[in-house]
Design a protein that fits this description.
The chain has 174 residues and is an all-alpha fold. The chain contains 10 helices and no strands. It is globular, with a radius of gyration of 18 Å. The N terminus is likely disordered.
Amino acid sequence: MDNSCPEPSPTGEVSLCIQCRKCTAGCPLADSADVPVNELIARLKLGDLDAVRAATALWECLGCHACSTRCPTGANPGEALDRFRAELAAAAKPPASRAGAFHLAFLKTLRRKGRSDEARLMLRIYLRHRPTREELRRGLAMWRKGRVRALGKAIRARRDLRKIFALARGPGGE
C-alpha cells in the first residue's frame, strides 16, 4: 500500500465512526457510488489514502452533508471528505477518475475566472484523461452550436472572489 497522499486533517472526528452506515443510507448518490461513504471513512481511519483518492465516489460527492447530519456519533464524514479533497488539490495530487479531474478543473477555472469556462474545462479533463470518440463528437457538436466559447470572460469582482476562496480555506487562508 503506497500512502503517498496527504494525511487527512482531524476535521470531522472520523475516529468516532462506528460503521453504523447511516451516512450511506442518507447519501443521495449511494446507489451509484463505487464505494459507500462509510467505507471511505473506514479507509481514511485505516490510512488507506490511495484507495480513498482513487474512489470515484470521493469526487462525485455532492457536498450536501446528508451523511454528517445522519451521523449519531458526530464523526462528520462530509467535512472529512471535503478536507481530504481540498488537501489533495493543494498537494497537486491528480485524481484517478474523470470525475475527480472535472472537480479539480472546475475549481481551478472558478478560482481564476469566477465562472465556468467550458472550453478550458474540457481541455483540462481531456489532457488528463484521453477522450472517447463519443466525447469528442459531443464536444465538437457543442462547439458548432455555440454552446462552448473559445475563451470565457472573467467576472469583474475577482478581488472579492479571492476573498471568498481565502475564507473557504479557513483562518489564515489568505
